[in-house]
Every structure is written in structure tokens, then in C-alpha cells.
Amino acid sequence: MARVHFTPQLRRFVDAPEVKTNAANLREALEAAFVLNPRLRGYVLDEQGHLRANVTIFIDGRRLRDLQALSDVLGPASQVHVFQALSGG
Length: 89
Hints:
- The protein has a single domain, classed as Ubiquitin-like (UB roll), CATH 3.10.20.30.
- It has helices spanning about 10, 25-35, 40-45; strands at about 1-5, 20, 55-60, 60-65, 80-85.
- The protein has three helices and five strands.
- A five-stranded mixed β-sheet has the order 2-1-5-3-4.
- The chain is α+β, with helices and mostly antiparallel strands.
- It starts with a strand and ends in a 5-residue tail after the last strand.
- About 20% of the residues lie in helices and about 25% in strands.
């Protein structure tokens, strides 16, 4: 099963447990996480359902390619890491 991990920075604002899923692509995997906590959707996706500008996702160590449809394919052992960008100065 693919696993979706959320960084501690994101978990500071909303409950985001690790999700294990048989999803075929990233959108399906994120939807599985949103079922567990619907509030998480607003932190990860914008109003059009696209990835928010302050969120980065890596699948098996590679940066997400499809920022709008989130159609990047997942394998049965894929590791997905969802990062919230940090700002500061």
C-alpha cells in the first residue's frame, strides 16, 4: 500500500495522520486522507482543487509534476510526503 505522510508543520494546524491506501494516483490518495479529516483539504488544496502554492509534495523522492489534476501515478509501495512551505526572515 502507498503511504501518505504529512510534515509536523502541517500537523501543527490540523490532524493529519499517516494514510495507507491502494490509490492509483495522488488525487485518490489525498482524497483518502480527506475522508479521515475533511479540514485537511483546505490546507492542501485551493478552491479549484489544485495544490496550494505553499504546499509541496514528493512521491518516492521526486517532486510532484501535475500541480492541478494531481494525476501522478502511485505504485503499491509509494511514499508520498506532503510539505507545507515555511516562511521567515
